[in-house]
TrEMBL record:
Range of residues in the leader sequence: 1-18
GO process terms (BP): carbohydrate metabolic process
The protein's name: Ig-like domain-containing protein
Domain Ig-like: 130-215
Keywords assigned by UniProt, alphabetized: Signal
Length: 350
């Protein structure tokens, strides 16, 4: 920019106290500050406002014949002057729209003299109701294993509260208070299988609730189904009841339980082909029937169609001192993609 003086032409680089500099939007700075230029004594402050509410930016200046011109620049846009009377007051009032989130605001203050002052830039944050960008997923986890449920919501100053339902979503109980961390860490037990979890995201603009995640917990040796429980597997449900421990005539240990298996898959199936029922002793070793066959055992179970059930005894010969306190291990091999494995408590007394 060039100034005309009494002696000719002189180059001039505007300082930070000069008027607004040239911008890509076409705003052009005017002449540099003169002795009677206005002085900004209170700069506009950044603010956060709920979407739909009004945001106010105020400047305080000293000088004679003060004038104001406010400008706004969207997050990825160019500086644009606020038109009309609204842009020429010492306080700028904007309705907080989503497009204004992250916008920059500044004002040029003029006076009687030729000089003008540009304020510092203030930032507008528009607070919108949270929106979930990551919903909690329904996990499959072994009992006693660590699990982290994750969720994320967009929005300003979002806080999260997790809730649990143990009755298929009929009622919910809070498991955390509102906090900034969106994740929930759990170590679920078998009895918690089927519990639902959801999270509410909250900020000044409102609350939004996520979808519910259902936790499916697999049984383990240390957290097994109780005797007499109906265990749902790939294509079968299996129940082992009246488990007993005894000694054979030869002195070997024997565990024995009555088993009911119901087929719920398509077509027809054979229990001996799909199911393997063994016994895990307290030493962690897996034992089977030892190639002993008795009338009416799983090998004699007839073919069944969808909805059909068969009953047979399951038995195994564990090592001495390992039977009491062990568990049955049931494996359903009817799904070619993955075996389903479950554990059921064995006898606790002879």
């Amino acid at each position: 920019m060039v100034l005309c003086t009494a002696v000719g032409l002189a180059s001039f680089v505007p300082s930070a106290n000069a008027a607004e500099r040239s911008t890509a939007s076409g705003e052009v700075a005017v002449v540099a500050a003169s002795a009677d230029s206005p002085k900004i004594v209170k700069q506009p402050k950044s603010t956060a406002v709920v979407k739909g509410k009004k945001a106010r930016f105020t400047v305080k200046a000293k000088g004679s014949g003060l004038t104001y011109q406010w400008s706004v620049k969207a997050r990825a846009g160019l500086w644009k002057r606020v038109s009309g009377k609204a842009g020429k007051k010492k306080t700028l009032v904007l309705k907080a729209k989503g497009a204004y989130d992250g916008a920059s605001v500044r004002v040029v203050v003029g006076g009687k003299g030729t000089g003008k002052k540009t304020s510092r830039t203030a930032r507008l944050t528009v607070i919108s109701r949270p929106t979930f960008e990551l919903q909690p997923a329904s996990p499959l986890v072994d009992a006693g294993s660590a699990l982290t449920l994750k969720a994320r919501a967009s929005g300003n100053a979002v806080k999260y509260r997790w809730e649990r339902s143990s009755n298929n979503g009929a009622s919910w109980q809070a498991v955390t208070s509102y906090r900034s961390s969106p994740d929930l860490k759990l170590t679920p037990k078998l009895k918690e299988s089927g519990n639902r979890y959801r999270v509410t995201a909250k900020n000044a603009a409102g609350i939004r609730t996520s979808r519910a995640a259902i936790i499916v917990v697999n049984s383990t040796r240390n957290d097994a189904y109780a005797e007499g429980s109906t265990v749902v597997m790939n294509n079968w449900t299996v129940l082992i009841d009246r488990a007993v421990y005894d000694l054979t005539d030869s002195g070997d240990q024997l565990v024995f339980g009555m088993t009911k298996a119901c087929y719920r898959g398509p077509g027809k199936a054979l229990a001996w082909s799909d199911l393997a029922i063994e016994y895990v002793g307290t030493n962690g070793v897996v034992y089977d029937n030892g190639d002993v066959f008795i009338d009416g055992d799983i090998w004699d179970a007839p073919e069944v169609y969808t909805g059909g059930c068969v009953a047979f005894p399951s038995f195994a010969f564990p090592a001495h001192g390992t039977a009491l306190g062990g568990v049955w291990r049931i494996k359903d091999r009817s799904d070619w993609n993955v075996d389903s494995v479950a554990f059921v408590e064995g006898p606790t007394k002879s």
